[in-house]
Amino acid sequence: MNATDGPPTRPGWTFLTNHAHVLVCIAADPAVRGRDIATQVGITERAAQAIVADLVAEGYVDRTRIGRRNHYEIVMDRKLRHPLEHSHRIDELLVLATPNPSSSPPASDSD
Rounded mean pLDDT of the chain? Predict the structure, then answer.
């Protein structure tokens, strides 16, 4: 069996926390289900629900119930929590971490 067979292996550590990974999932799909977040991040569904609850409780994500599903909206101008990154906002993180964040970066003058 070669390295391309079977599921991809997860690295022993990553640069982003699971909270950041959940934000990336929500940015990519504001209607994402908890079980899909869990699968993408590599955590349990209960852990994914707890992280979403943290993000909602702290004002980083707004959750709206639409029928039987949740719809999420990231509050892009919220500051990152750690003192080392507190001068940066969520939208800056998502510009780096997602191919198509919910909020586009400013247009460059070099175009």
Answer: 86
Task: Show me where the domains of the chain are located.
Answer: 18-97
pTM of this prediction?
0.78
> Which DSSP string do the residues of 27-71 spell out, in sequence order?
HH-TT--HHHHHHHHTS-HHHHHHHHHHHHHTTSEEEEEETTEEE
The CATH code for residues 18-97 is 1.10.10.10
Mean pLDDT for 13-34 is 95
